[in-house]
Write a structure and sequence with these properties.
The chain is mainly α and 77 residues long. Helix content is 86%, strand content 0%. It has 2 helices and no strands. The protein has helices at residues 5-33, 39-75. It is rod-shaped, with a radius of gyration of 17 Å. It starts with a helix and ends with a helix.
């Protein structure tokens, strides 16, 4: 299956969006880590950590898809 420039553009855009979502999740966790915490805030901080891990997983998956597209394009596999 031949991969087109528009296919690669879409894969790259998805990867870039996933990285931006990861950055936003990290910033959210950082904001919670930078203030005094009570028990409720600790729960929010922990939830933000899990959101970072989910975003990291999504970014890694998008990166793999983009890399696979590049391999199909340049190495035909």
């Amino acid at each position: 299956m031949e991969i087109t420039d528009s296919d690669l553009d879409a894969l790259q855009a998805a990867y870039k969006a996933a990285v931006e979502a990861l950055i936003a999740a990290i910033r959210s966790e950082e904001a919670l880590a930078s203030v005094p915490h009570d028990v409720a805030e600790l729960d929010k901080w922990e939830a933000a950590h899990f959101a970072v891990e989910e975003a990291r997983t999504a970014a890694a998956a998008a990166k793999t898809e983009y890399e696979d597209g590049l391999r199909r394009r340049f190495f035909q596999f």
